[in-house]
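#lab-general

N.A. 3:47 PM
ok so I finally got the sequence cleaned up, no stray characters, all 147 residues accounted for. can someone with queue access submit it? mine expired

B.Y. 3:52 PM
send it over

N.A. 3:53 PM
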Amino acid sequence: MDGVDGSISDGVLVLGATNRPGTLDSALLRPGRFDKVIYVPNPDREGRQSIIDAQCRAWEKNGAACDIDTAKLSSVAITGMMTGAEIVGACREAAMLAIRESLEKGGQNMPVVLYRHLEASLSAVKPLLSNASVLSEYTSFEEEYSK
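B.Y. 4:20 PM
back already:
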C-alpha cells in the first residue's frame, strides 16, 4: 500500500474483508492503512429471501426446477443467523440432494429442488455467528478500530 496516498485523485481504492478480524496482522491496522472499519451484518429477511430466490433462478437456468416457498425459508428461525455464504452453500447442497434423488429414480426426469431438500441442507449448517465468541470478536474489533 506504499505509494497510495489515499486521495481521490490517485484513483486507487483499497478494500479488505475478513471473517476473522482478530487474526489480522497489526501492521494492517496502523493509522493510514485501513482508515474505516465497517461491520457488515448477516443479511436481513429480505436479503436472505433474495439469496434463496437467486439460487432458485440459477437452478432453473441450469436445467433443474425449484418448487420452494422462499419466503418461508427466509424466516429467522430457519436462516436468521446464517451468512450469505452459508445460505448459498446450503442451497448448493439442496441441489445435490435433488440431483441424487433424480438419479436414484433413473435420471429420466429433470431434478426438482423441493422444500425438504433445502430444509435438510439448512438444518445441517451450524452458523458461524451463532458462536457467541465469534460474535464477541467482531463486536470488540469494530469498537476498537471504528474510532
